[in-house]
Amino acid sequence: MFERVLIANRGEIACRVIRTCRRLGIRTIAVYSDADADAQHVRLADEAFPIGGPRPADSYLRGDAILAVAKKAGAQAIHPGYGFLSENTDFARACAEAGIAFIGPRPESIEAMGSKAAAKALMETHGVPLVPGYHGDNQEPAYLAEQAGKTGFPLMIKAAAGGGGKGMRIVRKEAEFADALASAQREAQSSFGDARVILERYVEHPRHIEFQVFGDSQGHVIHLNERECSAQRRYQKVLEETPSPFLDEVRRAAMGEAAVAAAKAVNYVGAGTVEFIVSPNGEFFFMEMNTRLQVEHPVTELTLGLDLVEWQLRVAAGEPLPLAQEQIRAHGHAIEVRLYAEDPEQNFLPGSGKLLRLRLPAPSAHVRLDGGVVEGDTVTIFYDPMIAKLIVFDADRPRALLRLREALAECEIAGPKSNIAFLERLARHPAVVEGRIDTGYLDRHLDEFLVGDVAPPDYVLFAAATAALLHDECAAMAGMRGSSDPHSPWAQADAWRIGHEGRRLVALQRHEHRYEVEAYGHAGNYRMRHGDDTCDVRGARHDGEILSARFDGDALRLAVRADATRELLHDADGQRHHLGRAAAYAWESSDAAGGNQLVAPMPGRIVLVKAAAGDEVAEGQELIVMEAMKMELALKAPRAGTIESISAAQGDFVEADAVLVRFATE
Q1: Which of 149, 147, 167 shows the shortest CA–CA distance to 157?
Q2: How far is CA 190 from CA 56, 203, 420, 516, in A?
Q3: Model confidence over 570-628: pLDDT tens digits?
Q4: What does the alpha-carbon distance between residue 254 and residue 20 come to, in Å, rounded to a whole number?
Q5: pLDDT tens digit sequence for 48-88
Q6: How confident is the model over 524-567, as pLDDT tens digits?
Q7: Of 26, 465, 503, 556, which sees the most CB atoms within 10 A?
Q8: Which keywords label this protein (predicted)?
Q9: Rounded to an integer, what distance in angstroms lies between the CA atom of residue 32 and that of residue 305?
Q10: Do 38 and 50 meet the contact criterion of CB atoms below 8 Å apart?
Q11: Per-residue H/E/C for 3-51
Q12: Alpha helices for 482-518 (secondary structure H)
């Protein structure tokens, strides 16, 4: 076994690899960009070395710099994680030439499977079912348009290199093809340094089911069962699980055999994933092979009781696979979701900033957390905004879903916005609960998974106001104990007055809406009013996490977290409500930004300007395309009108809230 391993990655996966190495007694070496000098993977590793600027091209994609560190630190092997250089043939070959083990497949296997086009050509010769389409070398737009016509619509444009949903577009009409092709090629070039694409007939309502495969240098190849990843948004996986609720034993066996055959076709060594598109009738087609560890590998680990990173290390050190195919025994059900710094209500706009609060459930036999940040860390604009992976396990799927809902209810993120509320709705949606979701369902029915700007019900406002009052009273009592007159009635936060019952106003805010609750009483017993609705609250108790009280005689137990500035409340149906504390008697309305300018929603690089000063544009017309956090964002006109000026050019890097377009005043 290796004694010193360098991890050529960052964030969650680097921390994940470090944990296994430490358990095995292997010394770890990290590398970091300027943006990651204080990152958790740097703090967890035994040694860490800088390799360049914050942009991936200046650091984590610099194979020469990483190899230089490996030689300097005496690393015997390099674990590439996923993303960055994990599927880079040249880097794998350079490691071999330097006498350093690459913890992954042989360069030839990466080369064969790293390109979707090459992989499909190879699978075709081995009889693996393929979706009709084009995966040739001619990349001229006119020729691709011709091949698109032959393939037929709807079709899928895919980046030939890379993965992760980048460089993918669905095209339903011939007239949409040219723009979709140009956009996919730009994203592919930016993400993978390779603008080549392939075309595939788009299978309507498909499921995405992948098989984990593993090979060793002795020629053994096995599969470790499937993972279903059909819950996707814009080709990005949102929820992954094993076993698939769709497969029966016959289909599972057939797909497993095909996955092993695909791996054997390239003499595969190490961890890999063979991905299939599965039609509603069960027919399956090879989609691609990822020659690396997958983000969702923990669900496989939990159901098999294995450590796949340990397997990677052992196989790379020349050891045979620890188990044979007939020894693989699965039990239980595991589900994974990814907690992201993003705003689902704003088209999942990636977020950045300091994590002011990060509360996650405690790890247990049923809950696993793989993260790369802690409270106080910063989510930067330069990399994927994932905060942590939440993985749950139980004896069967219904109980695993229940574990997921309970674990999500314990999550709280403050600072950048997060997708927690979106995931909570996902975990309760009938399409997920019934196991019938397909890869396009989320995009077709996204409004079913978004909270929207819906007013909270009155009982939620009364519960939030109760928690706020109890918090304020507790804080006041704590302050009294340290005062010169701890028994003064004037120091208590109960609105006590001589001759009449004191009135208190609790002001709550959600988005631009303000809610005022009048309260009379103290110490957990209150009469409340909101508008025309009243409520009698009795016996309220709050331990910081759970509020219990009788509301008009009906006892409720609600999850509520409160402090002086905000409330986070889960109502009886599991709906998450974020309510900010507002000043009781000082309110200034917030006027939404006018439609006379278009601003950058976050820091990023301008990749395309599609208008000019003097142009007459329609509301919703695409004006600028910018790239941020490895995503292309289309910025559209807030209203119809004449453009007065444009303050951005292709290639410019702009800060958040920078004014990019000004409209002439009507």
Answers
A1: 167
A2: 11, 27, 29, 49
A3: 876 778 888 888 877 654 433 344 578 999 887 788 989 999 999 999 998 999 988 87
A4: 33
A5: 999 999 999 999 999 999 999 999 999 999 999 999 999 99
A6: 999 999 999 999 999 999 998 899 999 999 999 998 988 877 88
A7: 465
A8: ATP-binding, Biotin, Ligase, Nucleotide-binding
A9: 32
A10: no
A11: CEEEECCCHHHHHHHHHHHHHCCCEEEEEEEHHHCCCHHHHHCCEEEEE
A12: none
> What is the spatial distance between Cα 539 and Cα 128, in angstroms, rounded to a whole number?
66
CA 619 to chain centre: 31
CA 504 to CA 523: how far, in whole Å? 13
**Cβ partners under 8 Å of residue 206, min gap 6:** 230, 277, 278, 279, 280, 438, 439, 440
Instruction: Provide long-range contacts, Cβ within 8 A and 24+ apart, for 176-184.
Output: 177/145, 177/148, 178/141, 178/145, 181/141, 181/144, 181/145, 181/157, 182/141, 183/625, 183/632, 184/157, 184/158, 184/159
Q: Is the dihedral of CA 487, 492, 498, 501 positive or negative?
A: negative
Query: Phi/psi zone of residue 574: left (φ > 0), alpha (ψ -120 to 50 degrees), beta?
Result: left
Strands 4-7 and 27-33: parallel
- Residue 282 phi, psi dihedral angles, 5° rounding: 95, -5
End-to-end CA distance of the chain: 72
Comparing CA positions, the residue from 572, 562, 473, 478 lying closest to residue 521 is 473
Rounded Cα distance between 213 and 270, Å, is 8
SS3 state of residue 537: strand
The 3-state DSSP composition of the chain as helix, strand, coil percent (nearest 5) reads 30, 35, 40
Residues forming the active site: 292
For residue 603, what pLDDT is reported? Answer: 79
| Cα–Cα distance measured from residue 372 to residue 16, given in angstroms and rounded to the nearest whole number | 8
Kindly tell me if the per-residue pLDDT of 8 is higher than 90.
Answer: yes
